[in-house]
Write the structure tokens for this entry.
Amino acid sequence: MHENSFKSGALAALVLALVPAFSQANDTGVESDYAPVAAANPALIPMTAQVTANLPTLDNRLQKTDRLMKNLSDSSDPLREADVWGRIRSGYAIPDINNQLVANHVNWYATRPDYIARTTARASRYIFHVVQELEKRGMPTELALLPFIESAFNPQAFSSANAAGMWQFVPATGRDFNLKQNMFKDERRGVLASTDAALTYLQRLYDMFGDWQLALAAYNWGEGSVQRAIKKNQSLGKPTDFESLADLMPAETRNYVPKLQAVKNIIGNPAQYGLTLPVVDNHPYFTAIDKTSDIDVTVAAQLAELSMDEFKALNPQFNRPVIIGGEKTKILLPQENAAKFTSNLAQWGHALSSWTTHKITSARERIETLASKFGTTADVLRQANNIPQRTSLRAGSTILVPKTSATMNMNITQDIADNAKILFEADRPERASKNSRHVAKGGKSKATPISLVKPRIARGGSNNRAKARH
């Protein structure tokens, strides 16, 4: 509605509010502005000077209306901000802390402009969505800066404690918040699912402690650890706020809230620290496309006219070269590329997916044999399934293999995706010397299982995480 028409309506309503007659006021001077009219043309009862002195005048009413209209026009409309950084600043709501740890972290970030530039540029893909979700829940908008601390806004970040994604969930906590983790996808890395889970978790912790700083400590350290620290201070008659509990916390948690405060200070006034933030327009960066049939990652990127790097940055949860279709499968694409995807898909005259699954039924099936069977190479199968060199597949394993004419129109079912697993063991050379073979007590050779180590992605500016909580 136009502002002038809104003001006119408000003033009209105000004038009407002055018309009703007043009921007789008692000797305490309390007035009734909206007494019902008992009959037509009632006689007005004179009021004492004490009462009339307390009645609001028309001028007072108009002044209040002007202030109301000004407040309405100045109210924090999220879309009024020029960019997302301003929108975040306007929603700061967690009490500030100011101590030496904060100063140390501010100095660390402020003296690394390249790191800030890389992190904020990476954040520009995701932060509008995070802020929007925070505002929907009525949560402090500085929580959108928490991935600065967790992952430097890298959704592929993977810690030594097996925490993954922008919000750094370990497997168990991810499952607690319904983040699907199977051979084909890991929703701990998915932008939509992990953000929803993280905000739900943070809100739950706030409801538990009634304090955002303690909620953040619990997000890092675990709610049980924070509860025990609170009880210890209570037993000693000491305060239980974050700074009073800091001496009981591990170093990582003790620095956790100060780090967020440091980032909050820098985002609040980057020029003060000689920094420049990238412009992040205050509108969605991406949109979600529903996909109900299987599609190769390369095909999806091609249809969207995106580079593989950009496609994977928005869809980091997909572990394999094929995206399993389903009612809940969504592909994120930049706004302008979503239309291209839809248009190109309508004209696509080829198969969308070139992969299906094969379950190993015989023990120690060699990759080379499987490659020959499905008309591909061992290297292709190893890459598609993350199979290390010099390993064999054990019975019960499910792997991706190229489609054949018989399976060309078949999608991989959700049941297969949820239950698929790959079991490896080290290759045994056909001819091996006695000294090179491990012999069990029974005299039979015993294959030595191997331990697969996933690649670790360094998280700039962060120490190794204890991850006791999540």
Q: What stands out?
A: Confidence is low (pLDDT under 50) at residues 1-76, 431-469. The radius of gyration is 31 Å.
